[in-house]
């Protein structure tokens, strides 16, 4: 019996994805009037099929297909959790996930939408939950956390099998606790967010500690305490 999401397979075959060599977002080639792109990352892009809007299709770049099996195994370990999407199936070049309403924290900053403290608490609880499953919660940042009815939903688990701490969440949490009041409910220009993102990716060029880096950011932007 055909699964409902298989209706999207023809449309998905009409696109291809290419990754960047410098960790920038993927490039999408082709398209279909039945697909809507709802997210773009460095390894994949996510689409919604108009006739089955309850699903999201994570289409990987052509040289990243090996990550599909890994990410599917992570979802299997996570199981049913309110903090994460559900994975229904995997194919050669994409995963079938539950479509999640909401807005990324990155877009919250762009649009001046208040990010409640509950979101931070939810991510902390989600990290504890995946550790209990034997996984390592990494790569948690503004673009893969959704604000969903005042709560957090995490939409990318692809690095949870890797070792080590990238400290992205710890830095984001500290920035929220110490500096978010400066921009709470204010719209932050896209160019400024992208500048800070690029600075952060090489922050050790500007400072020896994250606190020093944040002082650098404050000293070189229009945000003031």
TrEMBL record:
Task: Supply the alphabetized keyword list.
Answer: Kinase, Serine/threonine-protein kinase, Transferase
Q: Which InterPro entries match?
A: Kinase-like_dom_sf
A GO molecular function term, named singly, is:
protein serine/threonine kinase activity
This one is known as: Serine/threonine protein kinase
Q: Species name for this entry?
A: Aquibacillus halophilus
